[in-house]
UniProtKB/TrEMBL annotation:
Principal subcellular localization: membrane
UniProt KW Membrane keyword: yes
Taxonomic path: Eukaryota, Metazoa, Ecdysozoa, Arthropoda, Hexapoda
Location within or outside the cell: Membrane
Organism for this UniProt entry: Timema bartmani
One Pfam family named in its UniProt record: Tetraspanin
GO CC annotations, alphabetized: plasma membrane
Name this protein carries in UniProt: Tetraspanin
Sorted UniProt keywords: Membrane, Transmembrane, Transmembrane helix
Transmembrane portions of the chain: 16-39
Membrane topology of the entry: Multi-pass membrane protein
Length: 140
């Protein structure tokens, strides 16, 4: 990528210097690729932890995060950060338990409608994504 910008400059007076810069850019890009491969699992686990925390503690409390989570679940056709059972341990579920029978938010439903989250049957809830939003976001 950066080598393209370097190629648009006027021709170098010293070809050795130009070759050195291209080699340096190539090595930096290779290093970024290797580091991303090495730390892939660690980044995935960190994403999983943070996303699960956001789902369980912020849904229905922070309006912006609630909207973002609803959009993710609708767009990626999934339910929960990892699986639909995540909602059982969320602050949202504990707060709604007394006033509603919803087991998951309505945005988890295949056909979103008010109150559709009361049934967590596979015909009603998105079960197909084994790792929830994280896999869908990374794969998209």
């Amino acid at each position: 990528m950066a080598s393209g910008g370097l190629g648009s400059l006027p021709p170098p007076r010293n070809p050795v210097y130009y070759t050195f810069l291209l080699l340096l850019i190539f090595l930096l890009e290779a290093m970024v690729g290797i580091l991303s491969y090495v730390y892939q699992e660690q980044v995935y686990k960190e994403l999983e932890l943070n996303l699960n925390t956001t789902f369980s503690k912020s849904y229905s409390i922070d309006a912006d995060k609630t909207t973002a989570i609803d959009q993710m679940q609708t767009q990626f056709k999934c339910c929960g950060a990892i699986r639909f059972e995540d909602w059982e341990y969320s602050q949202w579920y504990k707060n709604l338990k007394t006033s509603s029978n919803n087991k998951v938010p309505d945005t988890c439903c295949k056909s979103v409608a008010p109150g559709c989250g009361r049934r967590d049957h596979p015909s009603n809830i998105h079960y197909s994504v084994s790792m929830g939003v994280i896999n869908m976001f990374i794969c998209d």
